[in-house]
Design goal:
3 domains, 5 strands, Alpha-Beta Plaits, 5-stranded antiparallel β-sheet
Length: 266
């Protein structure tokens, strides 16, 4: 069978033909997306506010110190729950809220863990800048507002995001599988496929029950009774064939007569 180039109409026909495959993969993709959202809940974020004695023109330096490795390393023993330095560094950010207030923001899996992270890093930061080893000089600060609440992006947003992504991915995978299956299927189903396979154009098409075996084909050919519309289609087709064959026959007869008459007149 001649392979046809994919187009929108043929793609839709393939989807309808293998709707079970496409629908199955779409369902699995949706379940996978929802499952991923359920197993990976949104991260929780909590903040602790640290106040310094006086406004500082270089408070950005203090925010960098709050995120530095020495501060985070000293905070690790107070955090626990298997936290590593790399994970803590990824979850901690420090911003200057005002000229002498620094917000230590922590992001973790649960609200309590995010709160513990923020409070531990804030305490470690104050201990570090209050020591003699502080690069900005010993500064006595305090925790103005400890981290006690946490916020998240919302579980509903996770489901809304990953559910459709999984559904679309499943549809694409299902369509690719259906397309490969269709390309490997050598059965002829449509009149255009039959016409392309034998290289003959379609003259007419009539509706009939699809035979399932050779005996059914024999019964169809022997007992087929078209309705009024199908009969009119067949009569029109036969009339066209007669007109074409009659014109060809007349032309051949005329050619034969001319050929025979020539020698007779000679």
């Amino acid at each position: 069978m001649t392979q046809q180039q994919p187009n929108l109409r043929r793609s839709m026909r393939i989807v309808r033909r293998y709707k079970g495959i496409v629908g199955g993969f779409a369902f699995l993709g949706l379940v996978a997306g929802v499952g991923y959202a359920y197993l990976n809940p949104p991260q929780q974020t909590s903040s602790a506010l640290v106040i310094l004695p006086t406004p500082k023109p270089n408070i950005q330096t203090d925010t960098l110190i709050a995120e530095s490795a020495p501060v985070l390393t000293a905070a690790l023993p107070k955090i626990g729950h298997g936290m590593t330095l790399t994970a803590l560094h990824q979850g901690i950010t420090a911003t200057d809220a005002t000229g002498n207030v620094i917000s230590v923001n922590a992001t973790d899996k649960t609200a309590s863990e995010a709160e513990d992270d923020a409070n531990a890093v804030a305490a470690s930061f104050l201990s570090f800048i209050g020591s003699a080893n502080s690069p900005v000089g010993a500064v006595a600060g305090r925790v103005f507002v400890p981290a006690s609440t946490a916020t998240s992006g919302g579980a509903v947003k996770q489901f809304i995001l990953y559910g459709p992504i999984g559904l679309v991915a499943g549809l694409l995978i299902g369509f690719i599988v259906a397309l490969r299956k269709d390309r490997g299927d050598r059965r002829l189903r449509t009149r255009d496929e039959i016409a392309n396979s034998i290289g003959v154009p379609v003259l007419a098409a009539v509706e009939a029950d699809q035979p399932g075996d050779a005996q059914a084909w024999l019964r169809l050919l022997a007992e087929y009774q078209p309705d009024a519309v199908q009969a009119w289609t067949l009569r029109t087709t036969l009339a066209r064939l007669r007109s074409v064959s009659g014109g060809a026959g007349a032309g051949q007869n005329a050619g034969s007569g001319n050929g025979a008459g020539g020698p007779g007149r000679t």
